[in-house]
Amino acid sequence: MIVGPRSFDDRIAIIGAGPSGIHMAYRLKELGFRNIEILEKENRIGGRVFDVLHRGTVQQMTFLIMPPDYNELNQLIKEYGTGSIQDVPEATVDFFAIARLLYPEYTRGASDTELRMRLRREVIRYSILHRRLFGIYIPYLMQRPRNARVRRAIRGTVSQFLRRNRMPLIETTVMYFYQTLFGYQQPHRVSAVYGLMWITPKFCHALLDQSVPLFSFFDSGLISLLQTLIHNYNIEIKLNTDIKRITRSRDMQNGNVQIHCSNKFDKSRTFIEYYDFLIVSPSMRDLLNVMDASPVERMIFSRQITDTYFISSLIDSPYGIKSDRPNIAHAKTLLRYDFEPNVHVDIFAMTQNYSGSTFRLGFTPGGYDGKRILSSVYYQLGRLDPRIPAVGLDAEHKLRRYMIQMQRIPYSVIARFITPYHTRFSVSDMDKGIIWNVLDLQGHKNTWYIGASVTYDTAGAVIQYNNRLLRNYALPGSGYRAL
Length: 483
Ligand SMILES: Cc1cc2nc3c(=O)[nH]c(=O)nc-3n(C[C@H](O)[C@H](O)[C@H](O)COP(=O)(O)OP(=O)(O)OC[C@H]3O[C@@H](n4cnc5c(N)ncnc54)[C@H](O)[C@@H]3O)c2cc1C
Description:
- By secondary structure, the protein is an alpha/beta fold.
- It is built from 19 helices and 17 strands.
- β1, α1 and β2 form a beta-alpha-beta unit.
- The longest helix is centred in the N-terminal third of the chain and has 23 residues, at 112-134.
- The chain binds flavin-adenine dinucleotide (FAD).
- It comes from Pinctada imbricata.
């Protein structure tokens, strides 16, 4: 069982108004907790989820796709969402062209039909292996492997795991394309455990069964859902809060947790708030300098790393041209992480369910206003922080070169969102089971650690992690677990 707030009247502080913080506040309110406050440093909610309404379409600049394991987010959308969940139309991706590029020896002489058969065999083997390693899949963090054989089997990077198990086509189709496309995985740099969390048996099933959609999306955008939760559950959020110091101690008279904050725009307005319980949603590593971290917290969380950055740009342009080999061009840029624009998404086309060749590269009517303009979100992924001027300029230059190549000029950038991505633990720490050590630490010093840095960096995963914590926590006074 996990230790948590002791009474429904406990004052609970949640740091961060991203999906995990807001979802946790909503769940606690729903369970009957009365005193919850979210402290957010920015002047908006949503964290790394960023939506822009443009030309009558909610342009989802970050969070967009939902794989088949997003049961709990899907349920939430069905209950509180004001739009609808739709299948992502076929994106005309030629996986086998990518496989031929990456694995010339393995694919030489094989027809597409032969490669499809091989992929099928690999996927079936992967599914069986996953179940053998972890049993019934718990999204998005499987049970801690207790046995040395399993620990050995899951060590190393995603690529090493797939190569050990002779699954090159899964590596190309699933890992390189789907994961790297949105930055979820960098198979040659990220622990196999993260890969096993994301590539689920259900996802594999969808890959084989054409009648099951591989991905869906919510056409009103996640921000609208978060706003509904805030409104319906009367969730209090203090925006623009700069946290100066967090002290946790049982000896304080007014509560176990003392937080010194100031208003971001009026530094003279500092205040001290007392709470009984603390829930931290951003990376704990980023808070270590303001927090009275215990040696064990310091040891675990100082090891978190963030070495990837995303730039998403909403751009209006003419339609331009189709590249003759778009997928290969993508595969090459995907592997470089140097801000080459690696993909763009035409959300208007998706909401209108344009599919097949019309969807490819956004060759569709571009908006409800009927103008011959393509409004698309372009993603750039890299290892250096684009807020450093030279890096930002280089990224801008690469985007411009791409737009010229695609003859989408003149173009205008309507909105831009830059963010770090995929805070995680290193391969060797994951080999030692550090992500499960965090789970064991929950409740330590009256604190829960939630959010993308302690599970998998997707909105679906953070919601399921919250629910898992709550399921393992006995509600005050009752001994009952929260469902
Ligand atoms: C380009 C891109 C595409 C993505 N696509 C998808 C997708 O298709 N599907 C999917 O499921 N997920 C996707 N994601 C991931 C998803 O956006 C994140 O996993 C999700 O936002 C994590 O939620 P969170 O609440 O844990 O963290 P965050 O969203 O990062 O929220 C943390 C919050 O804490 C606040 N904060 C930080 N430090 C402090 C502090 N010191 N004091 C107060 N507040 C603080 C931040 O301002 C922020 O509001 C994508 C992300 C990116 C960048």
